[in-house]
Design brief:
With 213 residues, the protein is of the alpha+beta class. Helix content is 32%, strand content 27%.
């Protein structure tokens, strides 16, 4: 297990263990986080643990052109029930991802240090949020990091059915207009697979981000 120092450098991702755990320690500075994402690495840890850095193999990704939108979801996109925005409520989105229970059990790992670190990334122009509104109330959304033509998804939440999907689909379509080539979904979930995500080897993933970041 690699212990990070104050130097912003990571071991090769090929040195991760069978679960994808690569290193521990370091910090959540903007510079270190950007270095991590550019090398196919992300932080994921519980509040009572040191910072743990991961690079799983295989990796869950979604190619924008393969985004799957069901007939029923197309109706949701068109019926006017929801309204979509980007970067209008980043703080509300990340804090909702932290507190709103999710069916897959993810979300509770987001602690205040994560909130503060990704808020700084947002202020630096790298972290984005997508929001779903209904009658002026935030009912779903997601946040992640965009570097080059890759969007690294971090977390999403929903308090109403289809609200997070609505935000995700609109975000993908919006970013495609600006050249988006790849979405890093990190870990496989039923929700993401239903949207067209697929698994690729870590080596293929690294080649993809080297090309598009």
């Amino acid at each position: 297990m690699h212990i990070l120092t104050n130097h912003i450098i990571f071991p090769k991702v090929s040195q991760a263990d069978e679960n994808g755990m690569l290193a521990i320690g370091g910090d959540l500075s903007v510079e270190r986080l950007l270095c991590a994402y550019r090398n196919g690495i992300f932080p994921w840890y519980n509040e009572d643990e040191p910072i743990i850095w991961w690079s799983p193999d295989p990796r869950c990704v979604l190619y924008p052109d393969k985004l799957r939108v069901t007939k029923s979801m197309k109706q949701v996109l068109q019926n006017g029930r929801f309204r979509f925005t980007m970067n209008k409520a980043f703080s509300k989105v990340i804090n909702s991802c932290k507190t709103v229970d999710r069916k897959d059990g993810m979300g509770t790992w987001i602690n205040q240090d994560i909130v503060d670190a990704y808020t700084k990334l947002h202020e630096a122009g790298y972290a984005l949020s997508a929001e779903t509104w209904r009658e002026g109330k935030l009912v779903g959304g997601l946040y992640g990091i965009k570097i080059g033509n890759v969007f690294f998804g971090e977390s999403m939440f929903s308090t109403e059915s289809n609200a997070s999907k609505f935000a995700f689909i609109n975000l993908v379509n919006q970013l495609k207009k600006n050249g988006l080539q790849l979405i890093d979904c990190q870990q496989k979930t039923e929700h993401l697979m239903s949207l067209g995500a697929e698994m690729v080897t870590r080596s293929d993933f690294i080649q993809l981000i080297n090309k598009y970041v």
